[in-house]
């Protein structure tokens, strides 16, 4: 019975039983001093979309609520999960809502313009 509960609570089965899922749209916009990610998920309130950075990875998701075997479950539905490049200032990442879209701003740090260093060669 435990395996059946695992199967019933999986997001794939949930999508099938509830008629499918919405297709998230993520559009990247390059700015002079930052990169923006415009995230739109039809029928999902942009305020309910979560944005997290963990171990230099940007994770964007929303929760799917499900009741199975009398228990309320919140299952994350991932929209985006990728490593952040070295030239993003992680401490200044922020998000705003514009209409039905979540806009995540990824500001550049000083390394965005490249890094130059003259390497001195020592003799042995």
Task: Provide a brief overview of the structure.
This protein is mainly β and 124 residues long. The chain has 2 helices and 7 strands. It has a single domain (22-111), classed as Sandwich (Immunoglobulin-like), CATH 2.60.40.790.
Plain-language structure description:
This protein has one domain: Immunoglobulin-like (Sandwich), CATH 2.60.40.790. The chain starts with a helix and ends in a 17-residue tail after the last strand. The mean pLDDT is 85. With 124 residues, the chain is mostly beta strands. Helix content is 11%, strand content 44%. The strands form two sheets. It has a four-stranded antiparallel sheet, with no helix packed on it. It has two helices and seven strands, in the order ααβββββββ.
How does the helix and strand content classify structurally?
mainly beta
Main CATH class: Mainly Beta
How many separate structural domains?
1
| Helix amount | 10-25%
Largest sheet: 4 strands, antiparallel
Beta-strand level of the residues, as a percent range? Answer: 35-45%
Number of strands: 7
Distance between the termini: 70 Å
Low-confidence stretches: none
How many distinct helices?
2
Cα gyration radius (Å): 20 Å
CATH architectural label = Sandwich
> CATH fold name, please?
Immunoglobulin-like
Q: Major sheet: order of its strands?
A: 1-2-7-6
